[in-house]
Amino acid sequence: MTQNFPPNQPYPPQQPGYQQGPPPGYQGPPPGYQQGPPPGYQQGGYQQQAPSNVPHVAPQGSPYPVLVSTMNDLPGYTAEKVFGEVFGLTVRSRDFGSNFTASFRSLGGGEVPEYTQMLAESRHVAVLRMCQMAQQMGANAILAMRFDCNEIANTMSEVAAYGTAVVVQKVEAPRVQDSKPDEDDANDS
After folding, report:
1. C-alpha closest to that of 83 among 167, 169, 168, 160
2. What CA dihedral angle connects 10, 115, 101 and 2, to 10 degrees?
3. Helix %, strand %, coil % for the chain, to 5?
4. Helical H runs in 1-147?
């Protein structure tokens, strides 16, 4: 059950049966709620706001289009611009056959590979969606990335990845200074 979401598709991906708009029975916002999209938002997601000269900092061979770090800052880099929170979310349910097999495995104890694979794929998809949201904002890195996992109705698992979208720049190394004193400096002492 592998899904690939190309980085240039809008978030969330439009799937068959996806219906935009309020769910049936929705009564409207509570009093005092200000409707409308946040600044910078357009239909289809956030549009890139950062200049196109944002450096690419994701490591070579990374499965993600932006650098993702669980640290609050990156050694050797400085955060030039902070966009704010970004997240990716997926909800998965195992098919009946996998649930049946996993239930027998759980009787004997040990790892249940069916669920391990499902959760690993869910985390990967959640991080990819988070990266897509960050890219659409114009970020080249995500700092303080975390996961949140929950169970829904005892049949589905929700995995969320969230962090702070930023533009980072590599810090210039200080120039090596001449250790030999100038003639003027030698005469001053």
Report:
1. 167
2. 30
3. 25, 25, 50
4. 96-108, 113-137
Strands of the chain, DSSP E: 41-42, 45-46, 67-68, 77-93, 141-152, 156-170
Q: For the purposes of burial, counting CB atoms within 10 Å of the CB of 165, is it exposed (0-12), middle (13-18) or buried (19 or more)? A: buried
Residues in the chain, overall count: 189
Q: Percentage of residues in the chain with pLDDT exceeding 90?
A: 37
Q: Read off the amino acid at residue 32.
A: G
Task: Check if the beta carbon of residue 46 is closer than 8 Å to that of residue 134.
Answer: no
Question: Per residue in 5-20, pLDDT tens?
Answer: 555 545 455 555 545 5
- Give the other-Cβ count within 10 Å of 90's Cβ: 21
User: Considering the entire predicted model, what is its pTM?
Assistant: 0.61
Q: How far is CA 27 from CA 19, 22, 31, in A?
A: 17, 9, 11
- Do residues 142 and 67 make contact, with C-beta atoms less than 8 angstroms apart? yes
